[in-house]
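Q: My collaborator sent me two sequences in one message, no labels, and asked for predicted structures for both. Can we handle them in order? The first one she listed is below.
A: Yes, handling them in the order given. First sequence, followed by its structure tokens:
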Amino acid sequence: MSVAEAGLAMRRGTLTSRALVAAHLDRIATRDDRIGAFVFIDAEAALAAADAADAALASGIDHGPLHGIPVAIKDLFDVAGWPVRHGSVCFANRMAEADAPAVARLRAAGAVLIGLVATYELAIVGPGEDGLYPQPRNPWNPDHITGGSSSGAAAAIAAGMVRLALGSDTGGSVRSPAAYCGTVGLKPTNGAIPKSGALPLAPTFDTPGAMARTAAEAGLLHAVLSDTSPTALQDGRLDGVRILCARNWAQAPDADPAALDLMDAAASVLSLAGATVITGDLPPLDLMTDAGAILIHAEGLATHAERLKGDGRPMGRMPYQSMAAGAVLTDEDIANARRAAAVFKAQIDALLVDCDALLTPTTLTTAPRFSEFANGQARWTPMCTLPFNMTGHPALSVPMGFVRGLPMGLQIIGPHDGEAMILRIGSAFEQASDHGAFDAFTLPQSNPARVNRIKEMT
């Protein structure tokens, strides 16, 4: 059931939160041994919270759309009494003392916190082999990564173990795993959600984000996390909406040719839904990414300077190498990157004056194989996400199709505080396509036409 369907059933008295949570726990028990998304489950607390949600509804107290709904939490956000360890042996014995504000908002909304899902170590890079726990496997093909650093959240959703998860995004850590796993990830406008109570990396880039099965569900989760009203996603029509399709990014040298094909197909779908789709160029992807990477390395070094002293142990090799790279940057390098970031932000703002949203692929390839990261070697995977952490614009990734059996994502970028528009576009695209209509463990056998379509695409 969708979140809305489960909520309606609870309010009609045909479903209890306890039954819903128990079903989630059973699903995790039968599937997660093949995926490894969850690193901590608090079944007793989850069932107790479910009982409290049921009792509240019975007494006429309704906290809203997430009342009684299970939510997973990235192992980066503090949950009181839980072993939040940021995926690192640096924090192997850590217990969180209080809820992060984002977590507290979930509790206040009646959500049931079911457990912690994996992160790349310190939410930096991966998939490392020397972190606190093994990294999750991609539910579509276990030989492939999930992307990071919100790796466990995307894997858990893609495997049908939970529909909602709290993630975080510094350079694409909500959107790239969503794209690699065929789920939805929303990086909001920088500053829209409080980020205290989560381990920082690059403070001017870091933001909590909603990860979900659908755009509508991401909107419900985002509304709670940002303390705003839920977005009305209307009827799937986009009449009057103008979208710029940035084909130049999909034609980058390291892009799979399928990225452009799928994005063009998505643009056609959006056009049929009523949108006016125009083509145009964004500033060069490589320059925007380079500027953002310089700033992340500089801020990451400052954030973790104490942990980098000596040889960096017990920090894993990948995060150590990544943050140590900041040590070679000069003040001039950083100043130049900041000036470039300001220019890029102004250019994106200017484009969004004449259109409501921008369209790019989320990543330029499908999920790489684990073997490409052997021996602890960090590797940059080609993505289109980092520029919008640097400029602060909200960006949504929704599934846009399959390439050789693995999903790819469509990224929709809006103006600052434009989450409502990009969620509306993402939802309309979902309604006009079926790329995210099922999880990696269950194909819709009741609809042979859809199954055959998926087989053709793969």
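Q: And the one she listed second?
A: Here it is, processed independently of the first:
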Amino acid sequence: MNHQSTPVSASSPGGLMEELSAASVREPVPAALKTMKMDRVFWSHFSPNLGPGGWVTGALLTSMGLDFKTGVLAIVLGNIIGALPVALAAAIGPAMGLTQMEASRRALGQIGIRPPAFLNWIYCVGWDAVNNVPAATALMALLLLGGISSPFWLALGVLAATQMVASIYGHHVVQLLQKYLGGVLLITFALMGITLAVEGTAPIAAHHPVSWQTFLLATGVLVSFNLSWASYSSDYTRYLPASSSPKRVVLLALAGLLGSAIPFQILGLLTAGSVADPSPTVRPWCAGSSTPP
């Protein structure tokens, strides 16, 4: 599931489908409906990072000119910086019972929220592309193994429709999918990544000078990976009881974000030699020889 599957309405009693009225978005979740279990905080932050976006981001570091050592450093530093604000913002969900954008509107006002809302819309389009385009390509390849040829637009449409249905049903369905699909995704991508790392050319032994500008650029890209959750932080925690421990919410959200993003992006970095062309930004002599050929 991608980040845009975040629900925006209060749960209706007696079923999985959520209310879709404007009042259910503007008003806090009623106390009687705040029955979310604490472990869902971890899974709702863990599972969405187990997608093509994280893998591609890790592999991208090689094309940006980073070697394995500086790539891992950028991954760890960038994800910690990006995840901290998200985890802290998640702690306001139980007390306020509001989605992040609605809580921000109450702080910034009706007009003040419009610029960040517009930027968030642009981000949503970009994030859908980052996740769904490679996912649709992977679905096409999977179907082809079974002898079924599918056009790209159809594979993309199936993925988008599935996500849309889950989003319409809302919070409970999204949470269930993230919890139970998280383990499946973890095992699947781990097996694929290990296979590519063993059979491919892993960049562990390659070392070359990396400029501080390149390192900062790569770190900034990695910061944005988790920081992009900031506009949805409390969406995933607003169904928790108001008495929930803010410290536990922060720690579970942080563990979910870092526990998936860091290993997954390192796996992408390890498999970069198998799935990407050599970096055009690094001269061949940089990897080993002190002089150009």
